[in-house]
Amino acid sequence: MSTNEHQFLLKALEEGLRLDGRKPMQMRPLNIEVGPDYGQMLVTLGDAKVVVRISSEIVTPYEDRPFEGIFQVSSELDGMGHPSFNEASHRQEEEVMLSRLIEKAIRRSNALDLESLCIIAGQKCWSVRADVHIIDYDGNMTDIVCIGVIAGLLHFKKPDISIRNGTVILHDMSEREPVPLSVLHIPICVTFQIYSSGSMEDNVKGDGREFVIVDATLKEEALTQGTITLTLNSNKELCQMSKSGGINLEVDEILSLTNEAQIIVDDFTKYIKDTIKKDEELRVNPLQKELQVVNSRE
Amino acid sequence: MVLPEYQTSLLNKVDGSSTISIGEVKVICSVTGPIEAKPRQELPTQCAIEVNIRPEVGVGSTREKNMEDKLRVVLNGTINKFQYPRQLIQVHLHIISKSQATENNLKDLHACINGAYLALIDANISLLSSFLSTYAVINDDRLIFNPTSEQIQSSISHHLVCFDIKSGRADELLFVDSVGEFTEGELMTVLDQSIEEIESMNKIVRKTITEKVSRDYIWKY
Amino acid sequence: MEEEQPEFIQFTPNVFSRIAPDIYLERNLKEGIRPNLRKYEEFRSVQVNNKGFGRYDESNPTKSSVLGSSVVKVGKTTVICAITGGIVSDDDILDQATTSSNPFATVYPLVEIARGRSGACTDEEMIIAQKLYETLKSSGIIRKSALKIRYGYKHRTSDDKVEVIFPRNGPQTDGTNDDNDQVMADGNTAETIPFEDKQYSFVLYANLQVFSRTGPPFDICWTALIKALKNTKLPYTFLDEDTTSSRTVKSRSGANATIERSQLICDPVLNYPIKLEEKKIGYSSTFGLVTIPDGEKSQEILLADIEGESEESASTSLVHVVVAGDKLTSLTIHGGSKAGGNGSRITKDFIKKSIDLAHQRSLHLSSI
C-alpha cells in the first residue's frame, strides 16, 4: 500500500469514516447459506467468505479421556483465499493465530459438550471435526471462522446409533431421524482494531488519542496498530479475551468495547438461530420452499 | 441430459473463480495467473501449471494427488502455455460436497474439469481450445450419462471422457479414464456417444459464456 | 561480405537426449529403431522371482512379518514387493467408505522409487500408490470375504494343558457363516467354546521398492503386486485368554466403565493361501504415441512399453491399459497434441492397436 493511501485511510478512520461507508462500530452484513447436508454452510461477511463442513465418525477415545468424545477444528488458508497465502511463511503465522483463538473461543469455552459424544466408555466415541476453508480473505478472519464453526455445530446432526450386545449399530439418516449435537452455549468473537492518532511515544505517555473500529477489512487490518478479540455469548458472559501486543488501550475503553460487542453478539446469535430454524422448517416441509417462491413472485 | 449448474466470478481476491454443481457434487474453483513462479517451478519457454485439490473433509491425501495429476493432463493440453513463459498459473479446487458413490472419484473429477474450464475463462487465461468432459456408466448394457449415485453403485464400468472443442465440434481426445469391466467395443461406443454429449453440452455452456462476457465487458457503448 | 561459417556443436547421445529429447527420439525413429534398440511394438523382457523372503516360505522359514513377496525385473528396472498385514476389528470401521455395498477389498500400497537420496515422497510415488490402490479395488481381485478372519481359541483344559481350537472349515470364510462348530487342531470335535461374536478382518499393506527407474514404473509395480498377492499366505489366528486384559476406569461423575482388550495371535506355522478371483487378474501395459515429421506430412508411431528419458518426455500422449482375460479393467489416455508441440492425435485405431498389444502382453505375463 502506498504511503499516500496509508495516510488517507488513517486520517479518514480518525474522523470516523470508513472506505465502505460503515460507522466505526458497524459490522459488515452477515449472510449464512446452508448447504444440502447437515453442518455444511457458506458464511459471508461483506466480501469475506468461508466454507464450513462439520463431519463425524466413530473412533476409539483417547486413553486418558475414556468418557469424552473428540472435537477438532481445522482451518486452512490457501491461494484461493488470497494469492499471498501461497507463501508458506505468510500463511503459517496467520493460521497459528487463527487456530489458537478459535481453540480458546469454542473448544475451551466448552461450547460443545464432549461427554455427550461418548458412546461406550473407553471403547467408542464420536469424533466431530470442523473443516473451515477460507475461500475469500478480506480481513477479520477470526470472527467469521468462529461464526462459521459455531453455526455449523448448531446445524449439524449425526446419525442415530443404538447399542446391541456391545456392538454399535449406525442407523441411516433415512431410517432414523439424526440427532443434533449438544451445544451448551454460543460463543461469538468480535475483533476490534486499534489505531492511534499520535506516535507510539504519545500513546505510551497517554497523550495520543486512540480510536477503535470493529470488523476491519483487509486494508484496514493492514494498517492496524493493535488488535483485541473479545468472545462473548448471549448470556452476557465473557468467554475469552485476547490482546496480543500493539498499542496500549485504556481500561475504561475495554469495558465500553465489551458493551459494543454484546450488542453485536446478541444480533448475530439471533440471526444464526433464525437461519437454522428456517432451514429446519424447510427440511421438515419442503413444500414450504415452493410456496415461498410463489409468494415472492406475487 | 442433466445440465450442471454453475456460476462464475464469486471470489474477489483471485483472477477467476467458478462453482459448479453436478448432481450432489459441488466444487469451487479459483484460478490465479499468470503470476510469478517459484524458482523450482519456472520453465524457460512456457508457464507452469499448479493444481491443488482440497477434499470435502480433512486435508488432501494421495486420492487428491491422483486427481490433480489427471486434471493437469487436461489443462496441459488446453492452456496456451507458450503465451506465458516463466510464469505460473495456479488452479485451486475445493470439493464442497463429493459424490455419494464411494466406488471411484470420477464424478468428482468430472465436476473439477468442467469447473476449471469456467474458472479459466473467468480469469481470462489464453486457451488453445474449449474443453468439456462427460461421465458415463454402463449399467445393464445401457450407457447412462450423468448417472445418479445409485446407478453408479450398480454399474459394471465407469468412463470419464474429455474432448477439446473447436468451432463447436468435439475435436481431439484429451483424456480418458475408464475403470470396471468393459470390452473394446463398449469403449468405442462410449467415445462416440461422448462426442455427441459434449457437443450438445457445449451449445448451452457457450451461450451462457457469451452472455457473461458481454456483461463483463464494461466499456461497451 | 563473407559469411562466417557457423561452428557445429557435437553432443554425445546422452547429452543430446537430455537437451532435445524430441529431436533425439525423432532421429532415432527415422532409422526405424528406438533409442533403447527395441522395435516399435516390442516389450522389455520380464523376469519374475516368486521365491521370496516371506514368513511361510518353505526354503526360508522366518518369523518375519512378510506374508507374500515378489521380485520383478523388467529391462534394467527391478521392483521388490513385500506384502504385510494387520488385523482390525470390523466394528472399528464404521465409516461409509468401508461399509458400502462394494464387496471388494484392496491393499494399501507404499511405493518408493530409489533416486539416490532420501526425502519426502514424491508426487509420482503417491500417484502410483493411489493408482495401484484404485485399480486393485475396481478390478475385484480380492473379495472382502477373503480377508475375513475366523479365529480359533486358546485355553487351558481341566488338566492344565494348553490347547488351541480352530473352526472346523478352516480359518477362511466362504460367505456362509457357520459358527460354533470347532475342531481341535488334531481333528477332534470340541465341546462348545464361548466364541466372541466380534468380527475381525485382515488388512494388507504392500511395500514396493523401485530400483533403477528407466520409464513409467506403474506396469512393473502392478505386476509385482499381483505376483506377490498370488503367493500371499495368511496366518491362522486364535484368541488367547491369557492376553485378554480388562481394566476399570472411573468418570468424573463417578460412573464406572470396564475397558476390555483382547488380542488375536497369529500362529507361527499354520497358514492358508489368500483366495483371489483368478479370472479377474490382469496385467498392465503402457504405450506412448510419437509424431515425427516426414516431409510435408507427419507420421505417428505407437511405442510399446516406453522406456528412457527421451521416450517418456517426447511422447506426450500415453495410453495405460490393464487387461484381464478378454475384458479391460482399467484404461487411461493422456492426450493433448498441442501440449509439447509434438504430441499426437489419439485415434481409435491407436486405441484398438494398443488394446490388442496389451492383450498379448497380459497373456505372456500371466504365463510366467
Share of helix of chain C, binned: 10-25%
Major sheet size, sense and barrel closure of chain B? 5 strands, mixed
Radius of gyration of chain C: 27 Å
Largest interface, with Cβ-Cβ < 8 Å?
B-C, 35 and 40 residues
The CATH topology of the largest domain in chain C, please? Answer: Ribosomal Protein S5, domain 2
**How far apart lie the N and C ends of chain C?**
70 Å
Number of helices of chain B: 4
Please compute the radius of gyration of chain B using only Cα atoms: 17 Å
CATH second-level architecture of the largest domain in chain C:
2-Layer Sandwich
Family (chain C): Belongs to the RNase PH family.
Organism (chain C): Komagataella phaffii (strain GS115 / ATCC 20864)
GO molecular function, one term (chain C): mRNA 3'-UTR AU-rich region binding
Domain Exoribonuclease phosphorolytic (chain C): 65-235
What does this protein structure show overall?
The complex is a heterotrimer of chains A (298), B (221) and C (368). By secondary structure, chain A is of the alpha+beta class. Chain A has a single domain (3-297), classed as 2-Layer Sandwich (Ribosomal Protein S5, domain 2). Helix content of chain A is 35%, strand content 30%. Chain A has helices at 3-14, 88-107, 141-155, 200-205, 218-222, 251-284, 287-297; strands at residues 30-34, 40-45, 48-59, 70-77, 118-120, 124-136, 157-158, 161-164, 167-170, 179-180, 188-196, 210-214, 226-233, 237-243. In chain A, strand 2 and strand 3 (48-59) form a beta hairpin. In chain A, helix 2 (88-107) packs across helix 3 (141-155) and helix 3 packs parallel to helix 6 (251-284). The longest helix of chain A is centred in the last third of the chain and has 34 residues, at 251-284. Chain B has a single domain (5-216), classed as GHMP Kinase, N-terminal domain (Ribosomal Protein S5, domain 2). Chain B is α+β, with helices and mostly antiparallel strands and 221 residues long. Chain B has a 5-stranded mixed sheet, with helices on one face. A 4-stranded antiparallel sheet of chain B has the order 7-6-8-9, with helices on both faces. In chain C, strand 18 and strand 19 form a beta hairpin. Chain C folds into 3 domains: 13-32 and 282-367, no CATH class; 46-145 and 201-234, GHMP Kinase, N-terminal domain (Ribosomal Protein S5, domain 2, 2-Layer Sandwich); 149-195 and 237-273, no CATH class. Residues 175-195 of chain C have low confidence and may be disordered. Chain C is of the alpha+beta class and 368 residues long. Classes of the chains: A alpha+beta (298), B alpha+beta (221), C alpha+beta (368). Chains B and C meet through helix 1, strand 9 and helix 4 of B and helix 4, strand 19 and helix 7 of C.
